[in-house]
Amino acid sequence: MDSFMLLLEGFATALQPVYLLYALGGVFVGTAVGVLPGIGPAMTVALLMPITYSLDPAAALIVFAGIYYGGMYGGSTTSILLNTPGESASIVTALEGNKMAKAGRGAAALATAAIGSFIAGTIATVLLTFLAPIVADLAVGLGPVDYVALMVVAFLTVGALLGASVLRGLASLALGLFIGMVGIDDSTAQQRFTFDNPNLVDGIDMVLVAVGLFALGEALYVASKLRHGPVELIPVSKGKNAWLSREDWKRSWKPWLRGTFIGFPIGTVPAGGADVSTFLSYAAERRLAKGENKAQFGKGAIEGVAGPEAANNAAAAGVLVPLLTLGIPTTATAAMILTAFQRYQIQPGPLLFENQSALVWTLIASLYVGNLMLLVLNLPLVGLWVKILQIPRPYLYGGILVFAALGAFSVNFSTVDVGILLVVGILGYFMRRYGYPVAPMVVAMILGPMFEVQLRRSLQLSQNDPVALVSSPFTIVVYASMALIFAGSWWLRRRQAALEAVEPAKEEISA
């Protein structure tokens, strides 16, 4: 009941006209940027972060809630119409969504994605509303060794799950840890890894790293592969095919619900993520389909769009549970949201619901509002997003480079930051060029300093006895769960590889 009353107070703030405009602007801009080819939610948040610098904390977080959900939905548009996923979680949507678009049913695919995202986002936000305070109460009793265990799980699983190679994922993780250590040592107040450069004494700003990796690195990588000619875009059909038929509704509503209850729990655990939940949802729908519906998989089955898109948005809400209650980002997008919190001297964690109660409940209320606005905007504005997709790539990424440089300069109004952005951007290019995932690096840079503080505190309390790191029942359960998760992720990767191998073979046979 207390949570319900606090949520009502959050709605009282979020429904103020000025905050409604902020939410609408966040959803609109987030979707508009997220719709662009190759731009995922993390890059969307990184690019748009500078526009919130002049806002008060409540307004900034409401804008980010809109950008977060808008960017998540935007990726489905590029996956369906261009077969170009903006992130790994949109890959599964492209499998069936692009086939539907080629068959003249792109509007139905976009509609089931929008409605499924709304339903899943709403249900998942309800679960977040009542689950997050409970988790926060439990987290208050966790000690330093327990946090060390949680962060180890986050490090290893993010490094292993977000890349084709575990070793490359862990290498990216290690690089992020190194960058996170640059600056002043909290325990000794000594400089480290600054190379006597006064510009590095305060460390490297997270915004510079995020924008450099996601925006500049992606732009350079796309430019290196750019080919002349217009973007091949499948037009959205009109007339009787422009909306969901009765049969489409019948085939979509169960996948929406199944995807929601697959995505949310996976998003809440440190080893979760939307990419895992979307694959599980797609595999479940393929297994449950019967008769003619089953035969459509690989040729444009609407269940293969409805389920994964619902799982994707449900996992997006689930990711906020460890972020708000433990202060642990488990995805690159969550790491960017944590950066936004920290810019306002707000530290997510067990005490957030006590120390910043009004702010956090306003944020949760704005998730409901933003999710509704997302549906209202995207169904009638599909034609507008299609026009945005037709922007020539050179102009598109040229604009991104200018916006990224301005954003970097606006952090501290220093040209040195623009130089750091360039160096990080070149690093991001080479990471993409040679298959190193960038998301583990961002997560490690955020978690690294936190991990160091908790590890040192644990060893000080135990008089440098490493056995103490696995002394509590909670740590034993966490490390055992981590072993099971790694075994499960290995099995999932084998299933996914087999699934991806089957699709090209079917296409060759049909051709």
TrEMBL record:
Keyword Cell cycle: no
Residue ranges of every copy of the DUF112 domain listed in the record: 20-442
InterPro entries, per database record: DUF112_TM
Transmembrane feature ranges: 20-39, 51-71, 107-132, 138-158, 165-184, 314-338, 358-383, 395-428, 434-455, 467-492
Keywords linked to the UniProt accession: Membrane, Transmembrane, Transmembrane helix
PANTHER family: TRICARBOXYLIC TRANSPORT PROTEIN
Name of the protein this chain belongs to: Tripartite tricarboxylate transporter permease
Organism: Arthrobacter oryzae
